[in-house]
Design a protein that fits this description.
- The protein has twelve helices and eleven strands.
- It has 298 residues and is an alpha/beta fold.
- The longest helix has 27 residues.
- The chain is globular and about 50 Å long.
- The chain starts with a strand and ends with a strand.
Length: 298
């Protein structure tokens, strides 16, 4: 079976391809926020709002002027603007470079309590989740009111699942299938042989080929942004497809897009020389390939 990315609608406008709110980047981690936002835009998102530490806002406005920049508050009494942004969004992405401090924890709690649209939790968002049973309860509830994507690498999944890395390496598929039923999430277990598992526990994708150029800091942030963009492309194309199915297709296409973008970037920069922003900037060409040739799944 082959799946294809839809072509862009010639009658579309910026609102057609959704509004993505990205909460990313503690002080000193502007790069993580930038990579996620750049990738979301390069992957088709119509509008990106980026909530990051106040200290990052100036550089982010310069790096990606297309994004709407929002300063992340440090006190709960100043969360009103973030609440408005959550209500504004069609897709929520939380975690890249956020840190695991109290402010980040309270922002994740706010997203889980107030969010109603598809949510992707990545990186430090997953680390926060693994440490806090109250956040875990909220995340499990979220997966039953909307679409929840969790995108851990093996070590993050070890923390989340409470299983050792050895157990994950030996029987990761079995552990993952049990985990998704508890969280009712779409799980993307990232490795050299990435798996996508549906909320019902079905292994819908297992890619046994990767790209060595992706082994750089920030590539996971790029991946998260691209999944947001691809999901919103699919949403524009078809409002009638069941949300879980749409989410699984977006997850599969984003895995393929990441590999293609890495390969395209490596042709220009060499496998050793690829930077994460090169991967993000290659996303547009990668998506064109998925429009033209699609990808095969079992």
């Amino acid at each position: 079976m082959k799946i294809f990315l839809p072509k862009r609608n010639p009658a579309s406008h910026k609102g057609s391809y959704g509004k993505c709110l990205i909460l990313a980047g503690a002080e000193g981690m502007a790069g993580a926020a930038y990579f996620a936002a750049l990738s979301a835009y390069r992957s088709g998102t119509g509008l990106v709002k980026l909530c990051s530490a106040k200290e990052n806002c100036g550089i982010l406005q310069s790096l990606i002027p297309e994004a709407i920049i929002l300063s992340a508050p440090k006190e709960k009494e100043h969360f009103k603007e973030v609440e408005k942004a959550i209500e504004w969004a069609d897709f929520l992405l939380f975690g890249p470079g956020m840190g695991t401090g109290e402010e980040a924890k309270e922002l994740l709690r706010l997203v889980l309590e107030k969010g109603k649209v598809p949510l992707l939790i990545d990186a430090d968002g997953l680390n926060l989740l693994s440490k806090d049973s109250a956040l875990q309860t909220l995340a499990k509830a979220y997966g039953r009111k909307s679409l929840l994507f969790l995108t851990p690498h093996l070590m993050e999944f070890s923390r989340l699942s409470g299983k050792s890395l050895t157990e994950i390496e030996n029987r990761g598929g079995e552990i993952a299938k049990s985990f998704v039923k508890e969280y009712h999430c779409i799980l993307l277990l990232k490795s050299h042989d990435t798996m996508v598992i549906s909320p019902e526990g079905e292994l819908v994708y297992h890619r046994k080929k990767s790209c060595a150029a992706l082994s750089k800091g920030g590539s996971g942030d790029v991946f998260a942004g691209s999944l947001a963009g691809i999901y919103l492309i699919l949403e524009e194309e078809s409002k009638t497809v069941k949300q879980i199915r749409q989410g699984c297709i977006a997850a599969i296409l984003s895995c393929e897009a990441q590999i293609l973008a890495g390969e395209l970037a490596a042709k220009e920069w060499g496998e050793h020389g690829v930077l994460s922003q090169n991967i993000a900037n290659a996303m547009g060409k990668a998506l064109e390939l998925l429009e033209e040739q699609g990808c095969s799944i079992d």
